[in-house]
Amino acid sequence: MVKGIKICGVSDLETLKYTLNHKFPPRFIGFITNYKKSRRFVEYDKLKKLVSIKKNKTSFVSVLVNPNNKILEKIKDLNFDFYQLYDVSPERTKIIKKKYNVKIITALTINNQKDVEVYKDYEKISDLILFDGKGYERSVGFNHDLLNSIPNSINKMIAGNIKIEDIPNFINKDCFIDLSGALENDDGKKDLNKINKLLNFAVENET
Predict the structure, then answer these.
(1) Which option is the CATH number for 2-203: 3.30.70.1350, 3.30.360.10, 3.40.50.150, 3.20.20.70?
(2) Model's pTM, two decimal places?
(3) pLDDT value at position 176?
């Protein structure tokens, strides 16, 4: 079953308002907080304004790649429900979670079965485990069948160049689905029509 949708890489107010006010809003919206290589990166002053909006039941996620203490201190009072952490050790993840009293999505980038098994180091620390491709700023896929060995007791999210029409393929995976690139035009901007299509389509496949 598909537990819900995360739309990642939102970077403008129009898209954010449209998504939050949709009849079937996503469970999560992600904001690229410190990874400047991404075209979806949001500068701090703009980010502060975006996440101050009334979010209703949608959770706001700060997407962070190996964040240093400076950025963590800078964003600590912003209206985030989750920190999505790439390239952060289990030990540091524990420290961040405790110090900032925030829920954690541990993001693992997957190329092979060995990469998948790393989730065992984080399952007792993280609120969600995200299995993503190796692309970081690019939407790169991976073989999602590598995740078949993960028990349903693990609260997981799956990304990796997933298209809207792929969602039915995940009905038996008991997971959240994370999309970004599939919702963009060639210029990298989110397409409201694609977001509408996703949210209407996804609700048919949710529990």
Answers:
(1) 3.20.20.70
(2) 0.94
(3) 95
